[in-house]
Design brief:
The protein is of the alpha+beta class. It is 27% helix and 35% strand. A 4-stranded mixed beta sheet has the order 1-2-4-3, covered by helices on one side. 19% of the residues are buried.
Length: 78
């Protein structure tokens, strides 16, 4: 299992999802993507879109002041 980190702090929607999606497409089933972001409105957007593609959101939590980390397990992409 590969675990990859993606730091998208400083980016806003819809660029946040575009960057996450591009990274998801490079990973294989069973891999994990850890996304660090500072744009709170992107969390539900990333959650919804990643889930629709068959990935699992393991966690989405605050890791500092105005910084969140989402952990996404890669599933079979559509």
């Amino acid at each position: 299992m590969e675990v990859r980190a993606l730091d998208i702090r400083g980016l806003l929607c819809p660029v946040t999802w575009a960057r996450v999606r591009r990274e998801l497409l490079t990973l294989r089933d069973g891999d994990r993507l850890e996304v660090t972001l500072d744009h709170r409105p992107a969390i539900p957007d990333i959650r919804r879109n990643a889930t629709e593609l068959g990935h699992e959101i393991v966690s989405a939590e605050s890791v500092g002041e105005e910084v969140w980390r989402m952990v996404i397990d890669i599933g079979e992409s559509s």
